[in-house]
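Structure Section — protein described below
Tokens — whole-number codes for backbone shape
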Amino acid sequence: YADQIILTNDNPRSENPEVIIRDILKGITTQQNLIIETDRQKAIYQVLTHGNPGDLILILGKGAEEVMEIEEKKIPFNDKDIVQKWVQIHEI
């Protein structure tokens, strides 16, 4: 059970991220409170911005990976760094 789910990218490589998300949606029984945001940084910021005290927020998929693989490119990207940047911006 989740109050909200945000689906986003996780190393789409040469696949179309929207096709991947459509495939994931086939396995989700209810799409209430479901948000699709293909930009992973925006998705992380969105969940952090809308979280409330006491909420458990899970950012899953990449783990400690340091890059996002899109097509043939490896772009520096780390979920932990994104969260830390959000915390600094919001002075938490």
In short: The CA atoms of residues 8 and 38 lie 5 Å apart. The longest strand covers residues 67-70. The two ends are 28 Å apart (CA to CA).
